Amino acid sequence: MMLTLVCAMLCVSACVASCPLRCECSGAQRTVHCASAALLRVPAAIPSDASSLIITGNAIHRLDHSAFSGLQNVTHLNLSNNGIMEIGSHAFSSLLTLRSLILNNNQLVLIHPEAFSVPGSPLQELSLRASLYNYSSLTDLMTALRWGELTNLLRLDLSGNRFVLLPPGMFAPLPNLQHLHLRNNSLVAIYNGTFSGIEQLLELDLTGNAFRTISDEGLRELEQFSGVRLLLGQNPYVCTCEAQELANWLNSSKVRVGDADRLYCEFPAARRDVSLRGLSAQALGCYGKVHEEITDLSLQTSYVFLGLVLGFVGMVFLFVVYLNRKGIKKWITDIYEACQNVLEGYHHRYEIDSDPRLGRVSHGQQQGRPQMDQRLAHISTDARISQIPSDVTL
Ligand SMILES: *[C@@H]1O[C@H](CO)[C@@H](O)[C@H](O)[C@H]1NC(C)=O
Ligand SMILES: *[C@@H]1O[C@H](CO)[C@@H](O)[C@H](O)[C@H]1NC(C)=O
Ligand SMILES: *[C@@H]1O[C@H](CO)[C@@H](O)[C@H](O)[C@H]1NC(C)=O
Ligand SMILES: *[C@@H]1O[C@H](CO)[C@@H](O)[C@H](O)[C@H]1NC(C)=O
Ligand SMILES: *[C@@H]1O[C@H](CO)[C@@H](O)[C@H](O)[C@H]1NC(C)=O
Ligand SMILES: *[C@@H]1O[C@H](CO)[C@@H](O)[C@H](O)[C@H]1NC(C)=O
């Protein structure tokens, strides 16, 4: 009797002690809940049989290697809203059965390349909503996705991270990804390779980004997702002629755009809230114009190209000139001198022919001419026509 009581007391104290201070442990679900408990680090005394760990609203700035040691039965870990700035190497690697990792609303500045490495790659869901501090963290994340060998990851949520562009091949290390959420970012374009390597995809959410249109290249990239549920709503689509490709694509593509009827124009003002899908080329007022624009563009391109070629030729020419500057100088001097000689000769003759007085001399007095020529030659070597003495007009 006494022994049983002692045993019961021991058990109670052990059970109470095994739930961390300011946390709640609900035995049946083996859930540990530490919400807004002003924790500065992951508590040490978490029951080793916990399967769900929810630590939210605290001030845990760093997750280290040993943060979760001995918790190999945790399958769900929610670390939302803790102001986490840094995730160290192998921060989760003792969580051998971790399937779902929620890191929403943090300020990740540093993500170690091996932050998400867990032996056996058990992770199926990773959520980083509004969690990356800036664009540098995106580079970190990309590296961590590659090094983490997350081959079983099915869901990735990167919503609300102010992404403008996604590096090509970013998701390629996630071959089994099925759900990719990129809502509420600032994405402006999709390129060849943006979504390469995720052939198992079932859902791609691009709602609430900054797409004004989707280029040909982007449409071709999306075309690979024939069975995928694609969401493109709440983007500021511009409904001018350029939108025609997109409008046609929406009507004809085999890609399933889940919210195709809820894509609206934002600009120009006259077409605001008009459905993008319903817009025909006629409604956009661009029959014939499209072709014109294309030729115009190709003409512009060829002008630019011509300009570049000419510029290049010019530069090569100048360079050659520069290299041969001594030779050219000599050559020019030679030519200059030769010209000067020739010109002097011409000048001389011109002086004789153009002076009416001299002309009269040469015509009127044929006999006296040899004499005159001699005399003039003598004068013009050092005198101008104005200086010819007046007695020349005989
Ligand atoms: C983890 O779960 C397994 C299977 O449910 C169980 O056998 C094991 O005792 C648990 N480990 C701990 C430390 O509770
Ligand atoms: C994680 O915790 C936050 C804050 O308590 C909660 O709002 C959210 O629903 C939880 N997410 C999951 C997937 O459990
Ligand atoms: C991101 O923030 C970190 C820390 O403040 C800073 O060192 C880094 O230069 C920032 N990167 C960008 C691209 O702004
Ligand atoms: C979108 O993301 C921004 C920045 O992360 C956030 O402040 C805002 O609350 C989010 N909006 C919605 C509707 O989720
Ligand atoms: C996309 O890029 C790949 C190589 O990265 C190339 O083989 C392919 O032709 C490109 N596709 C288009 C449509 O440009
Ligand atoms: C798309 O289809 C709708 C109805 O099926 C039609 O009204 C609209 O004109 C079509 N748009 C284009 C660009 O073909």
TrEMBL record:
PANTHER family: LP06937P (PTHR24364), TROPHOBLAST GLYCOPROTEIN A-RELATED (PTHR24364:SF22). The keyword Repeat applies. SMART domains: LRR_TYP, LRRCT. SUPFAM superfamilies: L domain-like. Residues 235-287 form the LRRCT domain. InterPro entries: Cys-rich_flank_reg_C, Leu-rich_rpt, Leu-rich_rpt_typical-subtyp, LRR_dom_sf, Wnt_signaling_inhibitor. The chain crosses the membrane at residues 303-323. Keywords: Leucine-rich repeat, Membrane, Repeat, Signal, Transmembrane, Transmembrane helix. Pfam families: LRR_8 (PF13855). Residues 1-17 form the signal peptide. It comes from Sinocyclocheilus anshuiensis. This is Trophoblast glycoprotein-like. The gene is LOC107697589. It comes from the Eukaryota. One of its GO terms (cellular component) is plasma membrane. GO terms for biological process: negative regulation of canonical Wnt signaling pathway.
